[in-house]
Amino acid sequence: MLWKVLLLLGLSSAWAQKLCSPGASDGYKVRLSINSALGDQAYVWNENEMFLFRATLAFAMRTYSDGQEYDVANVVVCDETPRVSFWFVVTSPLDASLLVDKRRVEEAVRKSRSRINSAFLLTDDTLEFIGIPPTLEAPVAPDTPPWLIAFGVVMGGVGAGIVVLLVSSVVQKIRKKRDGEEETGGKTENEAASDAIYNMSFSDDEPVTQM
Amino acid sequence: MTHDQTASLEEEEAGDRPKWDNKTQYMLTCVGFCVGLGNVWRFPYLCQSHGGGAFMIPFLILLVLEGIPLLHLEFAIGQRLRRGGLGVWAQIHPYLTGIGIASMCVSLTISLYYNTIIAWILWYLFNSFQEPLPWSQCPMNANLTGFVSECERSSPVDYFWYRETLNTTPTIEEDGGLQWWMVLCHICAWSLLYICIIRGIETTGKAVYVTSTLPYVVLTIFLIRGLTLKGSLDGVKFLFTPDLTELAKPSTWLDAGAQVFYSFSLAFGGLISFSSYNSVHNNCEQDAVIISIINGVTSVYAATVIYTIIGFRATERFDNCLSGNILTLLNVFELPEGDITDSNYNQVVQRLNETYPEVFQQLDLTTCNLNTFLIEGTGLAFIVFTEAITKMPVSPVWAVLFFIMLFCLGLSSMFGNIEGILVPLQDLKVFPKTWPKEAVTGVTCIVCCLVGLIFLQGSGNYWLSLFDTYGGSIPLLVVAFCEMVSVVYIYGIDRFNDDIKFMIGHKPNFFWQATWRVISPLIMFFILIFYFVTKLSEQLLYKVWDPESDKFPTLDEKQYPVWINVIIFILAGIPSLAVPLVSLALAFYCTVYVDSSVCSQEHGMYH
């Protein structure tokens, strides 16, 4: 009896190995770069980590695929390298010799990518599924572009400044004219000009050089 | 005009003519005019491409032999004759009015496009108030599957500059329409300029306290920041490593001479004008020497600071290139991480090449080279430096500081450019006397703003470099050469010496005599001939950003269309020819209408 069970197990694992091979049409290659992601905090890749991977993938298939009860055994891994890269295929829970279609696997991986990444403390760059590009986040677009706000502030300030300066020079001119008219007669232009010497802000109201 | 007449004229004018509030304002305005964007983005490039530390030798020699004498000349003539850039030449001899008109035209040409550069700087400044900076990453394409293709093929900084800022067209003939965001920044730039020059030097004198000093503060902050970054000292070493063989090449000396000349903002008329607002006994000799030294030192200082940051960027790029190659090798040969490091990279590469030559050839690894510095001009500021900033922590702060510094540098130069336009316009009586100063400056700014809209089209960048290459180079050299000859030989060097003795108390020594009479005119002449010959002999090509071309992302070279020659003639030929043509026209006019006021010399030479 025991030898039958052993034979069956051996056959099934051999069968499974045949399903998974590098370049399998329904399989994907995975590559991890743990050292570059975590540096000193890097963990060692071993059998237990591989088990976690298979379990995570089974979870993804359960949740985001057709709802069938995928198990760790349904995720078959092969061709591990020291780089930490390997190929995997997913078999159907109903029939161990049938592979789940590539696209369903891709869809499940895509939807649960962030869960898979965080299970291994990695990111989209350091845990790569070759052939499944990561879905890029839509950029946050603010309603008003920030540059318009900065522009508005500066233009507002400058506009206010120009208005203030123009109004102040107009006011000064009116005041000067009124002072000039109040004087009874004979204030010559020269004297009016020399009054202006002592108040520097008037000095530029006259046009400047003559040829 | 005798010396007594000058002294009494100064008293009479005290009510009419603007005056500096104090000497500091005058010095800061002149320093601000001289120290501009060229000190930051042209000098470091020239320095590094002409033999590093060795370039200092021709630069300093020509600074002393060419820059200082010309500067002293302009200051002295302005202070003595108490007129702006057009009035002094009319006073020396009415037929020389052409020089004044030429320098006014050049100031006008340069003001038009220079303020567009300030508009670009403002655009980058406004965009610096966000994290992450918009030029640090590529935008997404329409269906969010990846990045925009143009950006992916080039780089985020290139894309932001050529597409989101300029929205540049592939050729100068396609104008691409006005870019509304640039029009807004353009109006902002002209408004900021207007508010500073609204009442002439009364307002500019206040503005320069900030615009002339802030760049030095920012440069020092960047120096401190830069020195703490990895690779900065490599950059400085690269900049100053002397290559004495470069000194034998004439092009090094000519580039040094041209850089000294353009850096001093001579022949614009602005410096003459600023100097004329001084009291007549101001020590212009001392001022000339001090400002020249400040200008030279600023160039070297700015180059050092820029290259600490550039060195950091180059090291960063090199490290990234190396990491990229290492990753490719690890992935292809399935080696564990940590097998290949920076230190054993070369040995591993050699070993792999020997063991698996076919696989290796297919990989096509890029060779990582540290020497990718050679960029100048707008490329340095808007592409290279902005990229370096994105790699620094707290990037928005550095971006804001950098662009405020560029803005101040540009604005303080614009004050001098505008002075070179406004004062001649007043001298030519273009505006009615009754108009207040605010209206005169306002109308000038509005007209320049409208004409400057050419540079805001899709092809605006090409127009700008056209104006820069032809409108801002040859006419200035012609005017400067004519200035020297007029003062030394028409006004008379002996008269000039006496004037200076009257103004500052002692006759100019042998150094000034030698440089004014012989050395400086000769240098100007050689540079003029060299420029003329190179510009005429080279093919009229310009560099374009064309996503369709094969060389993308490198700039493609295209030929100018034929009608551009007309534009070039208007830009370079008309100001240069103004000198002899106006002279002939006036000679003809004055023989017919002998009594006209234009022909007589108000305070003539012969009194």
UniProtKB/TrEMBL annotation, chain B:
Protein residues bound to Na(+): 32, 35, 39, 263, 295, 409, 413
Signal peptide: none
One cellular-component annotation, GO: brush border membrane
Main location: membrane
GO annotation (BP), single: sodium ion transmembrane transport
Chain coiled-coil ranges: none
Localization (cell): Membrane
InterPro entries reported in the protein's UniProt record: Na/ntran_symport, Neutral_aa_SLC6, SNS_sf
UniProt keyword annotations, A-Z: Glycoprotein, Membrane, Metal-binding, Sodium, Symport, Transmembrane, Transmembrane helix, Transport
Entry keyword annotation includes Nucleotide-binding: no
Bilayer-spanning residue ranges: 26-43, 55-77, 98-126, 178-195, 207-227, 260-277, 289-310, 397-418, 439-458, 470-493, 514-533, 562-589
GO molecular function, one term: symporter activity
Topological category with respect to the lipid bilayer: Multi-pass membrane protein
UniProt superkingdom: Eukaryota
Family recorded in the similarity comment: Belongs to the sodium:neurotransmitter symporter (SNF) (TC 2.A.22) family.
Protein name (database record): Transporter
Gene behind the chain: slc6a19b
